[in-house]
Amino acid sequence: MGAVLSGTWGERRVSEAVAEALAQAQALAARQRRADVGPSHLLGALLRTAEDPATHAGAVLRAGGHDLAALSQGRPDDPPPPGSGDRPITRSDAGGRPSTPPRPGPAVAEVLRDADACISVTGDRRLTTLHLLAALSRSATPEGAFLRQVRLTPDAVLATGARCRSDAHADDAAFARAGDRQAIENASARGTVLSVPQAPRLDDLKTHTVSRRSSTMARLMSTQMPEGGRVNTRAGVTTIRGWTLTHALHYLLTLGTLLLLLDQGIEKGAWELLACAALVPLEVSFVPWAVWLPAKGLALWLAPTPLRWFVIASVLLEMVTVRYELWMKRVDLAEPELPVSHFWRAYWREVYGTVWERMRTRYEN
C-alpha cells in the first residue's frame, strides 16, 4: 500500500519496506539514546529489511552474491556512546525512555536527498529500498565507503536493480512500469507529495513549432541525447558537463583536421589526402563498428605524419564523447546493457522514416 512519512522525514512517499527500515533505524537510535538517526542506524536497519526476499534491495544483494550476515558483521561499528562526539538525548520520561523520537541527522538527511535524485533516475514516484541503498552507497560516510568497498557502488546497485526488478514485490520495486505506477498512485491516494513534472519529450516539439525542419531535427537528436529527466542528478550533471567539453573539443579538432587535409590535398593535388578528409568526420554513432574501424584505420594510413596525430586525438575524443552519450542513454531508457549500435540503428531508422513520410506527403498532395 505504501506510506507517506511525517514532516520530520520530509513527507516523502515511500514503500512499506522503506517505512519499516526507517522505523527500525529510529528505534535503534532511541535504544542507544541518540538524538539523531545516523548512517550506521540506517545501514543496519536496511540490511535487516533486506532479509526479506521481496524487497528490491534484498534482490540486488542476492543477485550480486552478497551475504547479508557477512555485510552486517563487516559494516562499520555503531556510533560511540553519548559524550564522545554524538549528541545524546537529554530529555526522557520517568521510565528513562526518550520523550522525543530521534530525528534524521545531517548525514541521513543528505542520503534522503540523494535518494530523491535516484527516484528521478528510475522514473518512479516513491522511495524504495533500492533508492535508499544506492543513495547510502553514494554518501561520503564510513557506511558509504564500506558499501563501495564491497562493490555496491551507486551505478552497480541501479544496474543490478534494473536487471532483477521482477524479483522484487511491486510495492517496493523500482523502475516501475506505467501500469505499476498507476496502481501505486491509486493505493497511495491518502497522501500527496509535491513532485517536479518531467521535462517534455523532444518529439513534442512538432506540435509546438511551425517549421517541419525543427521537429525533424528534434527526432534525430533524440536518438543520441536523453529525453526525460532521469539524468538530472549529481552524476548526470557531471556527465553532461564532461560530454559538453569533449563534444566541443572533438568537433573543433575534427573540423580543423578536415580543413588542413583539404588545404594540403588541393594544393598538392593528392587524392589520398582528399579521401582521408572524407573519412575523418565519420562517427561511430552513425555507422556500425565494421565500417567505422576500417575507415579510421585507412584515415590513419593515408594521413601524413604531422596530421596523423590530429586524427588520433580526434578518435580518442570521439570515444570519450560516445562513452558519455552511452551512459546518459542507458540511464534515460533504464537499460543498463544498451549497446553502442543503438545510436546508428535509431538514427538511420529515423532518417528513413522521415524521408518516407515526406515522400508520402508529397505523393498525397
General description of the model:
Strand 1 and strand 2 form a beta hairpin. This protein is mainly alpha-helical. The protein has helices spanning 16-31, 39-49, 56-63, 68-74, 106-122, 129-138, 142-149, 154-163, 178-187, 212-222, 234-268, 271-279, 289-302, 305-333, 341-364, and strands spanning 3-4, 13-14, 36-37, 103-104. Helix 1 (16-31) packs across helix 2 and helix 11 runs antiparallel to helix 12. The strands form two sheets. Strands 1-2 form a two-stranded antiparallel ribbon. A two-stranded parallel sheet has the order 3-4. It has two domains: 3-187, Double Clp-N motif, CATH 1.10.1780; 234-364, no CATH class. Residues 82-86 and 187-197 have low confidence and may be disordered.
Question: What's the layout of helices and strands?
Answer:
Blueprint: E1 3-4, E2 13-14, H1 16-31, E3 36-37, H2 39-49, H3 56-63, H4 68-74, E4 103-104, H5 106-122, H6 129-138, H7 142-149, H8 154-163, H9 178-187, H10 212-222, H11 234-268, H12 271-279, H13 289-302, H14 305-333, H15 341-364
